[in-house]
Amino acid sequence: MLYLLSQLGFSFIAAAGFGVLFNAPRRALIHCGTVGMIGWIFYIILADAGVDPVVASFVGSFMVALVGHIMAKRFRMPMIIFSVAGIIPLVPGGLAYNTMRQIAENDYLAAIPLAAKAFMISGAIAMGLVFAEVIMQVVMNIIKRASNNVKREVS
Amino acid sequence: MTKEMTERETEKILEVCLLAGRIMMEGGAETYRVEDTMTRIAASYGIKETHSFVTPTGIIVSLQGDNPTRLVRINSRTTDLEKVAQVNQISRKIAAGELSVQEAHQSLIQLEESHLLFPISYQILAAALVSGSFLIMFKGVWTDFLPAMIAGGLGYSGLLLIQHYTRVKFFAEFFASLIIGLVALAMVTIGFGMELDKIIIGSVMPLVPGLLITNAVRDLMVGHFVSGLSKGAEALFTAFAIGAGVAVVFL
Questions:
Q1: Which residues in chain B are closer than 8 Å to A123, comparing Cβ atoms?
Q2: What is the ipTM of this complex?
Q3: Model-level pTM?
Q4: Is the pLDDT of residue B1 over 50?
Q5: Where do the structural domains in chain A lie, given as residue ranges?
Q6: How many CA atoms, within 13 angstroms, populate the side-chain half-sphere of residue B250?
Q7: B137–A7 CB contact, under 8 Å
Q8: Residue A77 gets which letter from DSSP?
């Protein structure tokens, strides 16, 4: 329980901190932190349950992008402000570091699988982003059509 | 007479489009958003057809009619989301018909010259906090929290300092990660820190080109191949610079 709480708290701080580094608008910092926290908590719960990190990253980035889109609509700001800070915790920094370290130590055979994994995870993150965007578009279209139908019926 | 006037008018619209596009691209906006914003601005001023070609190093815009096509070069790319948001707001105002071409141009120039970054002390503090948080998120031990904060903060200050003197981004990144590696190694050697790997991974995070990597793959997926590949190359270079800096410590 304490573990989950600390993960929640620190992912919030990390994402909000990245908001500062990326110079996000001041009033959006708390939202940045929230988005990052939501994405990370989905990732960490899945990863701890033994789900493949590629799948966990996909789910995490999907949630980040979904919440990011909703906030972008709500606050009328570009969606990138909310998603970027939230995505960062999912980026396979540790894997990339280990790859580089193996290469530096001339152990290329150990580096290749790590590099492939890092590439797969970044691909999964991008997939999550694009999927969430497509789903949002479809949902928005349906809502628009529905409200148009309602208007037509009223008039 | 009227023809000359409209020509000058479209010239001005083109300028507004290019300026908006450049500020956004320099602030780290996505390729499609830049194209979309420029098309929308032109459309709000009554130009129905706009073709644009946006890459991370330059923007080419062509408006409908017989005006010349124009190109701007993008030299520096940072992440300044506040500016992206402000251009977005200006373009919303333009679409709502609240700004004339002249006013839009004025406010964009004002925005370009303004300095909206957080104070440097805030940035360094944020980098330190981010480093410490990542250490915990990557399941490091609690006693390493402070060492990671120190290494991350020092590394980021090094990055800002060297970026101030040189425009070679990769050198600054290399040097920053070298500082992180050395500080972390020193702290582990004197017994202040425990796990060298975790401390380094945590404190390197503020430098990691996460935005570039995801933007690159995203651009590739939606078909902006030129942007995707060049952003990917930039991300790869940055990752390599960081890795090389840390690797020097292990040699």
A1: 217
A2: 0.84
A3: 0.86
A4: no
A5: 2-154
A6: 18
A7: yes
A8: S
In the predicted model, what is the mean pLDDT of residues B147-163? 92
Q: Contact B247/A21, CB-based, under 8 Å? A: no
> Is it the case that residue B196 has pLDDT exceeding 90?
no
Give me the amino acid identity at A81.
Answer: I
Closest CA to B26 of B59, B65, B53: B59
Give the total residue count for chain A: 155
CB contact under 8 A, B136 and A10: yes
Would you state the structure tokens that stand for residue A140, as one six-digit string? 């928005």
Average pLDDT, chain B: 87
